[in-house]
Amino acid sequence: MPELKVGLQAMPTEDFRQASTPLFLNDMVDILEWSFDANWDQDDHVYPAWFESLIQVYSDEQSLLGHGFRLSLLSAKISPRQIKWLERLKQECATRNYLYISEHFGFFEANGFIDGAPLPVPYTKEAVETGQRMLTKLKDISGKNVGLENLALAFSKKEAQDQGKFLEELLSNSRCFLLLDLHNLFCQIFNFNLSPKEHLSLYPLHKVREIHISGGSFSKSWSGKRDAIRRDTHDGPVPAEVFGLLEMALPMCPNLEFVILERLGNTMDGEEDFAQFRADFEQMHHMVKGHVLKGR
Amino acid sequence: MIGRDEPDLVLFQQELVNALGSEHSPEQIIETLEKNPELKSFRNYISTFDVDMVQVANELVHKWGKH
């Protein structure tokens, strides 16, 4: 059974630096994840020196996870931009020691739209084959095990309930794994009034190597038939429901290796928010390490 | 899994982002997609769309989508 580590998604922003420094100083952050492609569209982008050093330390210690979000993995037609992205990934993996690489379920690139947030894809044979082909490219180019994160948005309750099976087919290769984002799962549970345990069980939990937890927000229901819509905005504290899902998921994911707290940069304003961020991390740390102590 | 034939995913994705990138309401977006004769094999799938979720997708395309 693999060792279980906890970590943070690294953000090159001052709020992240201030909020997370005590966690690093207390040696609580086993693993770091970062979105290496966040600024690939800006050739002259420079990260702050402290951030470069942080990434390098975790790379040197073989404790760095790479989490891309700009590939558009399930676009049916591969574009020149995606080919460039894959070439850049090869360079990236030669520069830093990533344990694993992951991306997101869904697509945003089509018909001239080249960037955006991932959208759902109909569960068809063609979509499964498209995704499997792209995952193979990712695996071959990176030389790493490759993960895919579940998507919060679904166009219908049925689509939300089918996503686990769709992911299982996409990830059928032994070097592919599921990155289970529990806040994304919570969005589906809330928006479609699903049972948390039943919905969690629809995902291929034996394929989970990594879990994300985060916060989000509510927006207004267009139709008025719901009180609110839960959104995957990564800009708030982790809700109790997501910690509840973590408690439920830990014993159900026998191959889990990493649990990561995510929060977007520039979403914390002052010491109260920094303390909340650390409290979320400490609660996650306590739950995961407690699970290890119980013998998993 | 929907459809036993080979629906054209390229075309569906193009039409979906076009519709979501428009200024139409979520109801109009669903209607546009349902009435598109080239998306016949996706009609059952589109008929399941929840208006609130189409509104979320519409906001995402307008906020983050770039040409």
Q: What does this entry look like structurally?
A:
The complex is a heterodimer of chains A (296) and B (67). Chain A contains nine helices and ten strands. Chain A has 296 residues and is an alpha/beta fold. Chain A has a single domain (5-293), classed as Alpha-Beta Barrel (TIM Barrel). Chain A has an eight-stranded parallel beta barrel with strand order 1-2-3-4-5-6-7-10, surrounded by six helices. The radius of gyration of chain A is 18 Å and the shape is globular. By secondary structure, chain B is an all-alpha fold. Chain B has one domain (14-64). Chain B is built from four helices and no strands. In chain B, helix 2 (26-35) crosses helix 4 (51-64). At the A-B interface, helix 4 and helix 5 of A face helix 1 and helix 4 of B.
Characteristic key phrases:
heterodimer, A: 296 residues, alpha/beta, TIM Barrel, eight-stranded parallel barrel, 9 helices, 10 strands, 16% strand, B: 67 residues, mainly alpha, globular
Radius of gyration of chain B: 12 Å
Please tell me the total number of domains of chain A: 1
Q: Biggest interface between protein chains, with counts per chain?
A: A-B, 40 and 37 residues
Order of helices and strands of chain B: HHHH
- Summing up helix and strand content along with how strands pair, one would put the structural category of chain A as alpha/beta
- Largest β-sheet summary of chain B: none
User: What's the end-to-end separation of chain A, in Å?
Assistant: 9 Å
Number of strands of chain B: 0
Spatial order of the strands forming the largest sheet of chain A: 1-2-3-4-5-6-7-10
The first-level CATH class of chain A is given as Alpha Beta
Number of helices of chain B: 4
Q: Give me the CATH architecture of chain A, please.
A: Alpha-Beta Barrel
How many domains in all of chain B? 1
Helix content of chain A: 40-55%
Q: What can be said about the biggest beta sheet of chain A?
A: 8 strands, parallel, barrel
Order of helices and strands of chain A: EHEHEHEHEHEHHEEEHEH
Class by SSE composition of chain B: mainly alpha
Q: What value does the average pLDDT of chain B take?
A: 90
According to DSSP, the number of beta strands of chain A is 10
Q: What is the straight-line distance between the termini of chain B? A: 31 Å
